[in-house]
Amino acid sequence: MNETEVLLRLVEVVIAASLIELLWLLTHRRAAPRGLLPNVLAGLSLALALRLGLDGAGVPGVAACLAAAGVCHLLDLRA
User: Fold this and answer.
1) Which DSSP category does 30 fall into?
2) Is 13's pLDDT higher than 90?
3) What is the pLDDT of residue 57?
4) Taking a C-beta distance cutoff of 8 angstroms, is the pair 21, 41 a contact?
5) Are the CB atoms for 15 and 44 separated by under 8 Å?
6) What whole-number distance in Å separates Cα of residue 36 and Cα of residue 31?
7) C-beta separation of 34 from 7 below 8 A
8) What's the pLDDT at 3?
9) What is the pLDDT of residues 30-58, one digit of tens each?
């Protein structure tokens, strides 16, 4: 495995951990303040943008993930 493949796998682990965290937060509403969900979604969007960028995906896919992260950060500021 070269360095890029190792980085791709590490980013996939981070994405999986973020998804597990998000699912846990959604199922345990008492432990999930409204302001935390946009923050988790923003991090997930940024990790996905990194994953797509490392994999050689096109600019539109990476830009869409970065735009989604920006929207989540704006929602985080409103919370």
Assistant:
1) G
2) yes
3) 87
4) no
5) yes
6) 10
7) no
8) 87
9) 755 667 888 888 999 999 999 999 888 88
